[in-house]
Design brief:
The protein is of the alpha+beta class and about 70 residues long. It has one domain (about 1-70). The chain is built from three helices and five strands; from the N terminus they run E-E-E-E-H-E-H-H. A five-stranded mixed sheet has the order 1-2-3-4-5, with helices on one face. The model has no long low-confidence stretch (mean pLDDT about 95).
Length: about 70
Amino acid sequence: MEVAPDVHALRLIGVNAFLILGDEPTLIDAGHRGSGVMLRRQLAALDHQVTDIQRIVCTHGHPDHIGGVQEIA
């Protein structure tokens, strides 16, 4: 769901992540471990893929925000 121009909310396991599009697409938070499949599906619906993401920013170190990083980094 686009929440602002070029900013999309992505529902992952336990958290909403945000994809900021532009010159260097950025993912804010990565959900729990196991969120990779959900993320890939939602990116595909936006005509993007994991390899388009240039950076991942985790807002803090809880598992629901960092657990999915290893699946997509």
